[in-house]
Amino acid sequence: MHDRPNIHELLDVVQAFLDEEIVPATSGRKQFLARVAANCVRMVDRELTVERKHFERAWLGLNDLFGVEPSPSDRVDRSLGVTGRLDLLCERIQEGDLDEDSEHYNRILAFARARVRDKLEVSNPKLLAADAERGIE
Amino acid sequence: MTGGAAREAWRLEVSLERDGGEVERRTFVALLFRPGGQSVFSGAEEAVLLKAAAEAGVPVPTVVCSGAEALGRPFYVMDYVGGETIGRRLVRDEKFATARESLPAQMAEALAAIHRVSVDGDTLPFLPRPPGGKPVALAAIQNLEEIYRAVSMDPHPAFEIAIRWLLRRVPETTDIALVHGDFRLGNLMIDQVDGLCAVLDWELAHVGDPVQDLGWACVRSWRFGRDELTCGGVGRREDLVAGYEKASGRAVDMEALRFWEVFGNLYWGVITLMQVRPLIDKTYRTVELAGIGRRAAETEWELLNLIEGKAY
Asked: Nearest C-alpha of chain A: how many angstroms from B156?
């Protein structure tokens, strides 16, 4: 649809500029912020890469808990759709319907874990890798 | 020097001229309370708290004076205590290896001393106290849940599960004490040789369940990557508890500790959501806050690990 560089190539070059040219040329707080900025760019890159996969997993998991709903085709609708169904799940938990004595408790825990694992795959994959080494997945 | 959101710290190099012309050089730290900073108690009150802590045997900087106005703001001045506070360095650098060995026991002793400070009757009247008529821990969760619902922009099933989990396990203890409220690596001044030499940052002090301080000291974020060392990246939580029981004479119920560790992780998760709000509301746009908002997922992960027995 667009000419090269593609999205990932654009993000990669911004990240490399921050890490390789701004970080060594700055110090103290500026340098710290440049590192954080580079990390934000990497985060965006990872999110774009796995966004579709994470949506599918969340939607199927929610289908499993609440019954099958047709999956939205539009990108914005997908995000709103997941958030809306998660809001519903949160309300049910808050009301005490899904406490430890509920037959659904283990499925709820597994769903919540899968969701958080996906979020960490974007925000902090190093933490996931370190925990996997300790047998926490 | 850095000071945090509600106060700023100044290092004062002072030459004191004694009678007879002898000059003594001293270093102090002045803490100035920012206008509009959300301080629960005043600088003068915090100085009183530090004195009470010192009398109970807590290692704290000696307060020299306090007052209503310096550069237009309330302040107090204390002796400068040298050392390192940066958690990342303390848990990793070779030069702190000796200090790390003594830290779990020293942290336990310092906590035991904090919890010995009298909060009976009218002592330290400025400290926030738990409302009567319900367990201290229940009031704490309800308060945290209220803040969570006010600041959260997105659904977090893991936080909801944690809130329910906590509500079903409220410790029924009637043992209350002075709680430091932010006792962790990062707020402790550490000397390479002597280890813990001062407990800093008292602005979250309140009256509550003493086990809250132990749970907070074990929260994952304060291990600075040394995740297998559950007590602040320097020891195991069992070492902290053993040292604390010995120093305080109080018995610690390990399930109550788990409760407060879960509470602490949730509390930190809610703070990350709160810290990112100025960015979302576009009142303070900095790249630093951008990273913080997404750290909430790390606390969700740890909460599930604690609840499912994978990390406790």
From this structure: 7
